[in-house]
Amino acid sequence: MGNKDLEKRFLNAVDEANAYPKILPIDIKLKFYAFYKQATENTGLYRPSDGVEIRNAFKLNALFQVGKFTEDEAKERYIALVAKYLK
Prior knowledge:
This protein has four helices and no strands. By secondary structure, it is mostly helical.
């Protein structure tokens, strides 16, 4: 499977997640957030910029948990989250 196919599947998953009409539990939302950021901003320098410190702490913790994954692995995990929680 090539990078083009992975990128297409990832972008389709992102579109599906953005269009999902139901509210997900916060722990699931954090997984989506972290894998998306790892897949799209894998610089190692990303910091949450929300004005609420406790929310930033949860986001940062989620980012630490997925930091071991490569960009492609994070995309695959994001796609798997969509398949698991949104279908």
